[in-house]
Design goal:
Number of domains: 1
Number of strands: 0
CATH architecture: Up-down Bundle
Shape: globular
Strand content: under 5%
Number of helices: 11
Radius of gyration: 18 Å
Largest sheet: none
CATH topology: Na+/H+ antiporter like fold
Structural class: mainly alpha
Distance between the termini: 53 Å
Order of helices and strands: HHHHHHHHHHH
Length: 299
């Protein structure tokens, strides 16, 4: 038991370090100007916040109410539902279709809003579903501020006042932090993937439905521009697995492996669902308009 507890503690600390490094590298790349991209479009900003912080958590609540899931699976889905802005999103957009600066601004915005909105959602969920959570709302808010807010703002400040330093170290740090986040997901899946498979199809179905709900919410609230719509859809569906693992461990020191594995499994399923969504959406756009009329980047 002590050995399992130490592994969870170590994994939680490593996940927090990975998120911290990722947000720091993002701040180094985007700077304050890039972070504010979404804020210069107030309508899109409001719709993005609604998609990420309202639609997805409510959809998750409906799912765990309708489906007969174990507490561990419900807790894992709930943790992912209330923490948007996967650090992978920005780097994913750099390699494929989508607007990387908008995705980065989305991630930065959700990371900063999470300092207030995630503890608020935890308080709501605790009232609706009383549990034995050990961390107070204030502790959770402070944890998110330390892991997300400070590195993001610190990285942007370095970009503002030490641009040469930012240019030199942003990309290496981004690669290292991305590898760390992949490592977190792989380790969690390796530890307990058999538990998820043994639980049957319902946990997997719940993860797929939640990912689909997030993609649909981002798609329809992303506005009429196809390039923006696709970016917001993918960004909304991608939740912050590293921070979810850290907060679950913080709230439930004796957490079962199933919760951690549910979080990692959802992250993997979302990545698959996002790839399917992008392919289908690109095919739809190609049929609707000739290539010359398509938004750049979607060809």
């Amino acid at each position: 038991m002590d050995g399992a507890f130490n592994i969870k503690e170590l994994l939680s600390s490593f996940a927090q370090l990975a998120v911290f490094a990722t947000l720091l590298s993002m701040g180094l790349v985007l700077g304050f100007s890039g972070m504010a991209r979404l804020w210069r479009q107030p309508g899109l900003l409001v719709r993005s916040v609604i998609a990420a912080f309202v639609v997805v958590p409510v959809a998750a609540m409906v799912l765990v109410w309708v489906l007969p899931l174990s507490f561990e699976v419900r807790a894992g889905i709930g943790a992912m539902a209330i923490i948007p802005g996967a650090p992978f999103t920005y780097r994913k957009m750099l390699k494929g279709a989508g607007d990387p600066e908008l995705a980065g601004s989305f991630q930065a915005t959700m990371a900063l809003l999470a300092v207030v909105l995630v503890p608020l959602w935890l308080a709501i969920l605790a009232a609706l579903y009383p549990n034995d959570a050990s961390a107070s709302v204030a502790v959770v808010g402070r944890q998110i501020l330390m892991v997300q807010g400070i590195p993001l703002i610190g990285g942007a400040a370095i970009r503002q006042w030490l641009p040469d330093f930012a240019e030199e170290f942003a990309e290496p740090l981004n690669r290292i932090s991305s590898a760390m986040l992949v490592g977190v997901v792989v380790v969690v899946l390796a530890i307990g993937l058999a538990m998820v498979l043994k639980a049957g199809p319902l946990p997997i179905l719940a993860g797929v439905l939640m990912a689909a709900a997030a993609l649909v919410a981002g798609h329809y609230l992303g506005g009429p521009d196809p390039f923006t719509r696709q970016t917001i859809a993918q960004a909304t569906a991608s939740r912050n697995a590293g921070l979810a693992i850290a907060l679950i461990t913080l709230n439930f020191p004796n957490v079962a492996h199933e919760i951690l594995v549910t979080i990692a499994a959802y992250a993997v399923m979302t990545a698959i669902a996002s790839k399917i969504y992008v392919r289908l959406y690109q095919k739809q756009l190609a049929k609707a308009a000739p290539p010359s009329e398509m938004t750049p980047g979607l060809e």
